[in-house]
Amino acid sequence: MNEEVPQSGASSFFCVRERKVIMSSGWLSVAEIFGEDVFNDAVMQERLPKKVYKKLKQTIEEGKELDLETADVIAHEMKEWAIEKGATHYTHWFQPLTGVTAEKHDSFISAPLPSGKVLMSFSGKELIKGEPDASSFPSGGLRATFEARGYTAWDCTSPAFVRKDAAGAILCIPTAFCSYTGEALDEKTPLLRSMEAINKESIRLLRLFGNTTSKKVTPSVGPEQEYFLVDAKKFLQRKDLIYTGRTLFGAMPPKGQELDDHYFGTIRQRVASYMKDVNEELWKLGVAAKTQHNEVAPAQHELAPIYAEANIAVDHNQIIMKTLKKVACEHGLKCLLHEKPFAGVNGSGKHNNWSITTDDGINMLDPGKTPHENVQFLLVLACILKAVDVHADLLRESAADPGNDHRLGANEAPPAIISIFLGEQLQDVVEQLLSTGEATHSLNGGKLQTGVTTLPDLTKDATDRNRTSPFAFTGNKFEFRMPGSKLSVAGPNTVLNTIVADVLDQFADELEKADNFQDALDDLIKRTIKENQNIIFNGNGYSDEWPVEAEKRGLLNLKSTPEAVPTFLAQKNVDVFSKYGVYTEAELQSRVEILLDEYCKTLNIEALTMIDMAKKEILPAAAKYIKDIAKTAELAKSCGAETVFEEETVKEISALVTEMYKALGTLEADVQKVHSIEDTQEMANYFHDTIFADMGALRVPADKIETLVGKDYWPYPTYSDLLFYVK
Questions:
Q1: Which residues contact 528 (CB under 8 A, 6 or more apart)?
Q2: Percent with pLDDT over 90 in the chain
Q3: Confidence check: pLDDT of 213 > 50
Q4: What are residue 91's DSSP bridge partners?
Q5: In degrees rounded to 5, what are phi and psi of residue 331?
Q6: Running DSSP on this structure, what letter comes out for residue 13?
């Protein structure tokens, strides 16, 4: 889990206290290496002329336009700094609608001089704008295939960095990505728009409470990253892992996670060495990797950073995912970011810890010691209750993808039903307001006595945690626990920022017109909580009773991606995004098309991979085993020996082979029918309702066969091999 949200501004995110840690290679000063490959504020202050530095800071903090002359100076110094780091190329590093980052490397070299020598150059124009081919990225109809032009624009709010890998050292410049006609083709642009919206409306609210010092409000985000590590050689022996990122076949090993002995357990030496190298690379790139530990499932782990501004946190999470994969290869491992790489054990999520902080150190979600007296906090809390209640469908949609469908609601992750957990302390305050119209006290945590004289009494929080809640208050932040492990957190945070900004806007409008501010404020808080109390649920989200209760409350239960994605286009959602310029209706339509298309293509690849593995690997392996067992039976009979084992085994496997062969035929036939479906929504529904069911039916007999066939006959590494043999 992450540390609590800091009470200071953005500058604190890039500070690491002086400390030394012992590495296998000797002493490493974390403070000395932290951010050494980042063109951060300290580097800019050192290398840029004061006037240029001031103009750049105004652009970053106030959104003022940066002139080309100033950009030329910045570009020159950035290039010189990068070359000193060994960089030969630069790239506009952007986040298209693929879920991963994209880059095109351009060398710093200019046209050769008459002497045959070259100069290293990098202009302000090249820094500010790039022109990648927009036709080769998902656009959902915003761009025709023949319309190739697109633009990348420098996002100066996120620092440039030098990444070192097999390609050498590359200067990476974080950018936004848009089409020739201005539509957002990436994850970053809408996120930045949403951050501007919540900043504007939060400042309005703060002014109403007499705050004249805060100039900027920024969403603060800390995404926890879960992942699996498997041996690279074993990974390469499985087509399903190579093509889909998850195992499409696989029987459970004798041991799973039932003993709870992996979670927070001693980290194995090979994995510890891997984590050491991951941390070192991340620290050099200014990513404040804070916490590492074993997760619940065998071979599963987690890395959590310290909180950063939403835009930077999203960029850092992409860097984290890239680094986890890169370093894994260097250690003879493969990092699996799929939400459900193994059936029967816990999948991987990415808990998105979200808060709102001011530039002068105020966390607007800090309830203080007496939340019943903290009226500003109660108003913000009421705002979030309403935002989540009204736009629960959007939050669910923001976590929708094919991999996450395996995870949500599976007693390992939050249900697909959106609800809010407040905890005992805030729930008590809410109940006071609902029952009497006034909150007069707050529950205190007190002391937890251990009963051991040599141990100190522990400070007890006034609220427990609830791991089954998809949206839980955890001290001074909300933890959105629904996003999957490989998902970009740009989408969920764009949604959160926008829907909260909308309700803040509504609240500010009402309070600004009020004749009596205090009376209007009290009424607004109580009225909002009363109207949106159905979204509050503090119980067990895994229970069978909760879906029934949720339906009674009128809460949505969108169980699959094809159900969730179209909610993007509900009129209330189109209206809220359009109002703040976060998405145009055309951009929303494009994203629905992209997400549904991705869902269809993902399941199609999985289905074709299953067919290939069944035909070429599993059925031949079973047939060979049957043949060899039958021969053994013949030999045994000729010697007068009993052949009960052989005969029963042949019968059992043969029956399963027949079942599997029939299921394979059904899957093949149904996959062919896909080609006749033209409508993307209809196709997505077909993949979910028919193909997904066919794949399940094919897997059942195949996994049973695995438990009966001799290990030497089985064509690929088993779950036992993958989950328990990384030492």
A1: 382, 383, 385, 386
A2: 80
A3: yes
A4: 105, 172
A5: -105, 15
A6: G
Q: How confident is the model at residue 727 (pLDDT cuts 50, 70, 90)?
A: low
Strand partners, 458: 448
Residue 414 phi, psi (nearest 5): -60, 155
Alpha helices in 164-258 (DSSP H): 188-208, 232-235, 239-244
Does residue 429 have a pLDDT over 60? yes
Long-range contacts of 526-532 (CB under 8 A, 24+ apart): 526/433, 526/434, 526/437, 528/382, 528/383, 528/385, 528/386, 529/382, 529/385, 529/430, 529/433, 529/434, 530/434, 531/386, 532/382, 532/385, 532/386, 532/389, 532/390
pTM, entire model: 0.93
> For residues 473 and 420, is the Cβ–Cβ distance under 8 A?
yes
Q: Are 489 and 483 in contact (CB under 8 A)?
A: yes
Q: Which residues pair with 572 in a beta bridge?
A: none
- Residue ranges of domains in the chain, CATH in brackets: 1-34+225-348 (no CATH), 36-186 (3.10.20.70), 188-220+349-420+467-531+557-583 (no CATH), 598-724 (1.20.120.1560)
Q: How many residues belong to the chain?
A: 727
Spatial contact of 103 and 172, defined as CB atoms under 8 Å apart: yes
Tokens of 308: 């950063």
DSSP string, 521-559: HHHHHHHHHHHTGGGB--S-TTSTHHHHHHHHHT-----
- Separation CA 520–CA 540 (nearest Å): 35
Dihedral angle sign, alpha carbons of residues 421, 424, 425, 429: positive
DSSP string, 298-343: TTEEEEEEPPEEHHHHHHHHHHHHHHHHHHHHHTTEEEE--S-SST
Q: Which amino acid is at 352?
A: N
The DSSP line for 97-162 is TTSS-B--EEESB-SPPTTS---B---HHHHHEE--BGGGS--TTSS-TT--BEEEEE-TTS--EE
3-state secondary structure of 653: helix
For residue 375 the two structure tokens come to 């009226």
Asked if residue 239 lies in contact with residue 24, where contact means CB atoms within 8 angstroms, the answer is no
Is the pLDDT at 22 greater than 50, yes or no? no
* pLDDT tens figures, 609-623: 999 999 999 999 999
